[in-house]
Input
Amino acid sequence: MTVRFMLALVASLAATSSVSGQAIAGPEAPKPVVITFLDVGQGDATVIRTPSGRVVMIDAGRVSPLRQLTRLGVSEIALLIATHAHADHIGGLDDVLTARPVDTYVDNGTPHTTETYRELMAHIERLDVRYLQAVPRTLILDEISLDILPLPPSMEGQNNRSVGVILRYGEFLAFFSGDSERPELEFWQGRGVVEDVTLLKAPHHGAVNGFTYSFLEEASPEVVVISVGGTNPYGHPRPEALAAYSSFADEVLRTDRDGTVTVLGFSDGRYETVLGEDSYDQVELQSMGDWDLNQLGSEDESGELELISRMLPSNQTTGSMEHVLTLIVNAGTNSQDASNLNAEYVVIENHSPTSLDIGMWQLCDLSSRCFRFPAGSKIDGARRVVVYTGYGATDGVSFFMNNGNAVWNDNGDEARLFDAGGQEVLRYVYE
Ligand SMILES: [Zn+2]
Output
């Protein structure tokens, strides 16, 4: 069911607002999760407000979205997700991090070569924001939960390592897809994590490589929102994509024509859409406070753990350190290998709050080509290190194998991590 009248929204929000509650008799009107796709030109920036009024932001556009955040009354962000490291998604993040307290930051753990990316990561390091790599887990924030979907292990480029998120609020489900293209959509289908959703954020700005009929059939969205700039050199959204979305969804909305798009999701599965800036800024917001970070492998009584294990891809890390460390290989591409060996790297993240001594540990591939971490090396709590294949000098966070040849096979390999005693503690297999 769709209600497009602004008055309906205002009435519904007024009914849920404690300040104007005296005018409303009877039972309290149901509170929606409020999902606002900011009009940021060619790029993505989405603000999600829980029924209790806490804020999740997914991407921040190419330039600062602070004007819109101020308009929405967003003063704190509980969870900030960067789907991938392209400038039309992370360009505005620096300003957001400067101007708003952020509790937790999630990204795809895949470094990018740009200055924008390096400055952003340095900024996050300075702020000491809690950093989480996007491994499959469920994050619970008030009434909503966010399933972080598994990432394809060795895809080419950032788009197909976009952090995928399924938001749940009762019967209402929304799928956020970053700039994923067919390979990642097919990967998610293969992992069985695509569900029947109410709202789909169109992958990759409505690109022709951002949809498949099979994916749309499985996701079966009632409303699709395309975040796209009015003039862009890519021809987004493409007519083929628009036709596909229109054949599945009742409504296809786009920020280039509709401006800011807000979708209200209700726990009984209903939704309402509101277009334009003036009609969505009346949500009562709360301080970010404490919230539940239900991480991979943690105990939970509400069945979340079952969900997580269902989502675990078969080629995740295994071994005695699997609950402490995540290891991901980016094998680069053939074309990059010869010219830039540092396009190949391994990311190791420490999920525990305490520093881990990895001095004299070894990282090896299937052919026993190994890198030994220098004595005294460590991974700080909730931090990560990157081991690049090519040449460079370590700063304690970036390590270099100083190899003249590619190490990680593009078509499948194993990364094995051995502790200082030579005991294998972690293994990551990819195909
Ligand atoms: Zn993009």
